[in-house]
């Protein structure tokens, strides 16, 4: 039995080695590419570390990290820092790096899949910042005592300064996005003009635009104070679909319009909540929150996109007015709105977009 057992073990060992040798030989005979050929096919560049025999391939904003092994072995490839791929290993031969064709083809396929997936995801392509009022329309009027002297303050001046500071921060953060300020001085674009500017922005497929209108409040009650963020009331229904692209069946068009309305409302609420949370973080108990509210303001009623209207505070309240007219206070307001917008944009783009873009 022992002799037979040893003979069987020897045959098994011999057979396994034949299989391993056959697999290795097959891998060695598989087509492979030089470094230049591989990078040409991948439209990429290689950063190579000869000491650790590791490399990083960068192609069309995607990366693959690998270690060179022996010809015929498989290797783990870290793709875009998130996915592990098992591919035939690149290897060195006569001091030259070689790439199995299967490695190159599989990596190219992963890159193309990623690009197609990214192309189908929604992104915020444009941000419109609207400083309320301006020119002949001063907006809400308040009085602030400075050095014992009463000074008249206008909503239009506050909104322009805060909006300009916000706009400058957004430009630095999003150099690749279209950014629009509906007025840059003491001018009066009509409400229709402001909304038309937003609607006239050229967008590619799967791109969206958001609209933020900035205002200040006033009340006969001098004690009323605090910030609030408004969005369009869900009960209000807009015509969000361009008549030229409307489905032939009226019922389908109506359903599609309602779906877009609900999605825009949801996104507007999310953006409003994000801005409100950052106001709370910026001001704490120094300035009270009046919450999120729904209303049919013109600029949000006419905007075919996620849109909010921000009320900074009350010009009729001395504490609010002092905060809104000081340079440090205006920076706090601008920073809070900025952080809220950035959070919303990043969440929107990370999720691939919460909504569809209304056809123009």
Explain the overall architecture.
This protein is of the alpha/beta class. It is built from 9 helices and 16 strands. It has helices spanning 2-29, 35-42, 101-119, 155-173, 191-199, 250-283, 298-301, 318-325, 327-350, and strands at 32-34, 44-49, 54-59, 62-67, 74-79, 83-88, 91-93, 96-100, 123-131, 141-146, 149-154, 178-181, 207-217, 227-232, 289-295, 307-314. It has a 6-stranded mixed sheet, sandwiched between helices. The protein has a 5-stranded antiparallel sheet with strand order 2-3-4-5-6, with helices on one face. Strands 1-8-7 form a 3-stranded antiparallel sheet. The radius of gyration is 31 Å and the shape is elongated. Residues 1-29, 243-260, 296-303 and 355-360 have low confidence and may be disordered.
Observed structural traits:
360 residues, Aminopeptidase, disordered N terminus, 6-stranded mixed beta sheet, 42% helix, Copper Amine Oxidase, Chain A, domain 1, alpha/beta, 5-stranded antiparallel beta sheet
Please outline the helices and strands.
Elements: H1 2-29, E1 32-34, H2 35-42, E2 44-49, E3 54-59, E4 62-67, E5 74-79, E6 83-88, E7 91-93, E8 96-100, H3 101-119, E9 123-131, E10 141-146, E11 149-154, H4 155-173, E12 178-181, H5 191-199, E13 207-217, E14 227-232, H6 250-283, E15 289-295, H7 298-301, E16 307-314, H8 318-325, H9 327-350
Parallel strand pairs: 9-12, 9-13, 13-16, 14-15
Antiparallel strand pairs: 1-8, 2-3, 3-4, 4-5, 5-6, 7-8, 10-11, 14-16
Helix pairs in contact: 4-9, 6-9, 8-9
- Tally the helices: 9
Fraction of residues in H or I helices: 40-55%
What's the story with the biggest beta sheet?
6 strands, mixed
Across the major sheet, the strand order is 12-9-13-16-14-15
Beta-strand content estimate: 25-35%
Task: Specify the structural class.
Answer: alpha/beta
Order of helices and strands: HEHEEEEEEEHEEEHEHEEHEHEHH
Overall 3D shape: elongated
Rg, please?
31 Å
Low-confidence stretches: 1-29, 243-260, 296-303, 355-360
User: Which whole number gives the mean pLDDT?
Assistant: 81
Number of strands: 16
By CATH, the architecture of the largest domain is named 3-Layer(aba) Sandwich
Q: State the CATH superfamily name of the largest domain.
A: Zn-dependent exopeptidases
CATH-defined topology of the largest domain: Aminopeptidase
- Report the end-to-end length measured between terminal Cα atoms: 85 Å
State the name of the first-level CATH class of the largest domain.
Answer: Alpha Beta
Q: How many structurally independent domains?
A: 2
């Amino acid at each position: 039995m022992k002799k037979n057992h040893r003979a069987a073990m020897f045959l098994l060992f011999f057979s396994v080695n034949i299989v391993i040798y056959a697999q290795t030989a097959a891998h060695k005979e598989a087509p492979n590419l030089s470094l230049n050929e591989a990078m040409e096919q991948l439209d990429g560049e290689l950063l190579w570390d000869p000491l650790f025999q590791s490399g990083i391939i960068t192609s069309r904003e995607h990366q693959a990290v690998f270690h060179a092994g022996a010809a015929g072995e498989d290797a783990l490839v870290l793709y875009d820092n998130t996915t592990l791929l098992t591919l035939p290993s690149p290897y060195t031969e006569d001091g030259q790096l070689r790439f199995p064709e299967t490695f190159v083809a599989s990596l190219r396929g992963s890159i193309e899949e990623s690009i197609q997936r990214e192309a189908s995801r929604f992104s915020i392509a444009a941000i419109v910042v609207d400083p309320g009022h301006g020119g002949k329309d001063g907006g809400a009027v308040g009085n602030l005592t400075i050095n014992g002297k009463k000074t008249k303050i206008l909503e239009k001046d506050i909104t322009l300064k805060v909006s300009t500071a916000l706009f400058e921060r957004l430009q630095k953060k999003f150099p690749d996005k279209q950014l629009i300020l509906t007025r840059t001085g003491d001018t009066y674009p009509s409400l229709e003009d402001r909304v038309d500017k937003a609607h006239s922005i050229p967008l590619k497929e799967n791109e969206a635009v958001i609209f933020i209108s900035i205002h200040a409040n006033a009340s006969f009650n001098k004690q009323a104070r605090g910030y609030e963020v408004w969005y369009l009331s869900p009960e209000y229904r807009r015509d969000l679909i361009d008549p030229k692209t409307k489905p032939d069946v009226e019922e389908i068009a109506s359903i599609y319009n309602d779906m877009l309305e609900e999605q825009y409302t949801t996104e507007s609420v999310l953006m409003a909540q994000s801005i409100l949370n950052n106001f709370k973080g910026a001001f704490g108990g120094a300035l009270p929150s009046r919450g999120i509210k729904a209303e049919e303001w013109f600029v949000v009623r006419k905007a075919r996109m996620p849109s909010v209207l921000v009320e900074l505070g009350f010009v009729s309240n001395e504490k609010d007015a002092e905060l809104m007219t000081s340079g440090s206070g205006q920076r706090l307001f601008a920073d809070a709105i900025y952080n809220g917008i950035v959070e919303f944009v990043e969440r929107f783009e990370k999720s691939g977009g919460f909504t569809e873009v209304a056809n123009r």
